[in-house]
Design brief:
2 copies of one chain form a homodimer. In chain A, 33% of the residues are buried. The longest helix of chain A has 17 residues. Chain A is globular, with a radius of gyration of 13 Å. With 98 residues, the first copy, chain A, is α+β, with helices and mostly antiparallel strands. Chains A and B meet through helix 2 and strand 3 of A and helix 2 and strand 3 of B. Chains A, B: It comes from Pseudooceanicola albus.
Chain lengths: 98, 98
């Protein structure tokens, strides 16, 4: 079952993500990252691939796109804060870059 | 050639768009609309179709998506304000809904 993360579990789970550029905003309880691509096509291709996983896992990002940039904010709305699902989707998004 | 719109031309061009829910923000010089869909899949399908036209016309929206909602902001960054390209892309986005 998905549950809100305790601060210690959260930090353990998020630490590898901080290394790839994710940041955690305690005030909004959101995990976020700005991705920059070569151009719009690359940025939207990334979004399309990520969208498949989001739908598959029924866990969707709040995200915006401006030309070659994609800004992602992850939180688990149903739970009112970050959960392991957010870490899972963040890891997947990083994997999609490689 | 694409050029900034005079207020009168802008209003003529944007008036039919206002009727479908677009609004023009004079302060930011941006044409914007919130689209709501049945679910994430429908919202992202719309974005994918719109992305093809944006790339084809080399005119890209600033947009964000949160589950079934897509918020679009159109302006012509190169020109520093709205142009006929923004009206053209807005019309196309409306057409994609039908």
């Amino acid at each position: 079952m998905t549950e809100l993360l305790s601060p210690s579990v959260r930090e353990t789970l998020f630490e590898p993500l901080y290394a790839t550029g994710w940041t955690y905003d305690a005030e909004t309880d959101v995990l976020q990252k700005d991705f920059t691509f070569q151009d719009f096509t690359e940025a939207f291709a990334f979004m399309t691939r990520a969208a498949m996983w989001a739908e598959k896992w029924d866990h969707h990002p709040d995200w915006s796109n401006c030309y070659n940039r994609v800004t992602v904010a992850l939180t688990t709305h149903d739970m009112g804060g970050v959960t392991s699902l957010d870490a899972k989707l963040a890891r997947k998004m990083d994997q999609l870059l490689t």
